[in-house]
Write a structure and sequence with these properties.
A seven-stranded antiparallel beta sheet has the order 1-22-19-24-17-14-13, with no helix packed on it. A seven-stranded antiparallel beta sheet has the order 2-3-4-11-6-9-12, with no helix packed on it. With 293 residues, the chain is mainly β. The protein has one domain: Jelly Rolls, CATH 2.60.120.10. The protein contains one helix and 26 strands. The chain is globular and about 55 Å long. The N and C termini lie far apart (46 Å). The relative contact order is 0.20. Helix content is 4%, strand content 51%. Bound molecules: manganese (II) ion.
Length: 293
C-alpha cells in the first residue's frame, strides 16, 4: 500500500478569538492538487454577541471554497454578491485578477463548523475574470451507514457541477457508527484526507481530528476505518509541476504579480472595488516578505 505522510495541522489565530487549524500549506506539504490552503474552523460555540466577522480583503489567483457543516455565514463581495451559506452547501468564489469580500456570522452566538479552502488557478487562467457561485444542493448518498456529500469533482457516478480549472475531487463522509469505507481513487491524483471530527485508521495507522493524511499519486483506492461519530474530508487533484507562491490572501506565479496586487490594495487602486453595503471595514496587508519589493 502507498506510504502515508502524516501532517499535523497548526493552530492559527484569525483574530477576535477565531482559532482555526491549518492543514495546508505546511512546511511538510504545500498543496494537494490545486488545493493550496485548508483551514478547519470549529466546531466552535460562540457566546451571545460573538461570531465570525472578517472585514473586506482582496484575493487574486485563486478560488475560495467554503464547505459549511454547522452555522450560517453571509458572504458579500465586490461583484455585488450577497449570499448566506447554510449547512451542506458550498460557496465558490473565483478571484482571478481580483475580488474583495467579507464574511460574517448571520446571528450572534451559536455554533460554527466549516472548512475553508483555496484552489490555486493554473497560469493560463490565474488572471481570469472574477466570479461567485453558490451551490445549495450537492450530490449526497449513503453507503454502509456512512453519509457522503460530493463537494467537488466527480465520484461514484455523481458530479458536482462547479467549474474548476484543473481536475479536482472533494468528498465529505460522515458516519454515526463505526464503519469501513473503500474509496476508489484516481491514480493520477494525489490525495489528502482530513478527519474533521472523531478519528480514522488507514493501513493500521490512526489519525485523529486535524491530522492530515497525504497519499502520493499511484494509489487506486484506500480503505478507511471510521470510528463512530467521525467526519472526514477527502481531497484530490492532479499534482502541480511547481508550487504556487502564496502571500497573505494572494496566490500567484510571480513575486511581481503578488507585489502588484499588494500595492493596488494598499493604494486603493481600481482593481479591488468596494463591497456594497459593507460599511468600509478593511483589512490591512502585512509587509511583503521580499526585500526591495
Ligand atoms: Mn477571503
Amino acid at each position: 500500500m502507498t506510504p502515508i505522510q502524516r501532517i499535523e495541522s497548526r493552530a492559527t489565530d484569525l483574530g477576535d478569538g477565531m482559532l482555526v487549524r491549518r492543514a495546508l500549506p505546511t512546511r511538510a506539504r504545500r498543496m494537494v492538487g490545486a488545493w493550496c490552503f485548508l483551514d478547519h474552523l470549529g466546531p466552535v460555540d460562540f457566546a451571545p454577541g460573538q461570531g465570525m466577522h472578517v472585514g473586506a480583503h482582496p484575493h487574486i489567483g485563486l478560488q475560495t471554497f467554503t464547505w459549511l457543516i454547522e452555522g450560517e455565514v453571509r458572504h458579500r463581495d465586490s461583484l455585488g454578491s450577497d449570499q448566506v451559506i447554510r449547512p451542506g452547501q458550498v460557496n465558490l468564489m473565483t478571484a482571478g485578477r481580483g475580488i474583495v469580500h467579507t464574511e460574517d456570522s448571520v446571528s450572534d452566538g451559536g455554533r460554527l463548523h466549516a472548512a475553508q479552502l483555496w484552489i490555486a488557478l493554473p497560469p493560463a487562467t490565474a488572471d481570469c475574470a472574477p466570479a461567485f457561485e453558490h451551490f445549495p444542493h450537492l450530490p449526497r448518498w449513503e453507503d454502509k451507514g456512512c453519509a457522503f456529500t460530493l463537494v467537488a469533482g466527480n465520484f461514484a457516478g455523481h458530479t458536482m457541477p462547479a467549474r474548476f480549472h484543473t481536475p479536482l475531487l472533494g468528498v465529505d463522509a460522515c458516519s454515526a457508527r463505526a464503519t469501513t469505507i473503500d474509496f476508489p481513487l484516481d491514480p493520477a491524483f494525489e490525495h489528502g484526507i482530513l478527519p474533521l471530527e472523531g478519528e480514522m485508521r488507514i493501513g493500521g495507522e490512526r489519525f485523529v481530528a486535524d491530522e492530515f493524511a497525504y497519499l502520493a499519486p499511484g494509489a487506486d483506492g484506500v480503505s478507511i476505518d471510521l470510528a463512530a461519530g467521525s467526519r472526514i474530508l477527502l481531497l484530490g487533484g492532479e499534482p502541480f509541476a511547481e508550487a504556487v507562491l502564496m502571500w497573505w490572501n494572494f496566490v500567484g506565479w510571480s513575486k511581481e504579480a503578488i507585489a502588484g496586487a499588494q500595492h493596488e490594495w494598499e493604494s486603493g487602486g481600481p482593481r479591488f472595488g468596494p463591497v456594497p453595503g459593507d460599511g468600509g471595514r478593511r483589512l490591512t496587508a502585512p509587509a511583503l516578505p521580499w526585500a526591495g519589493s
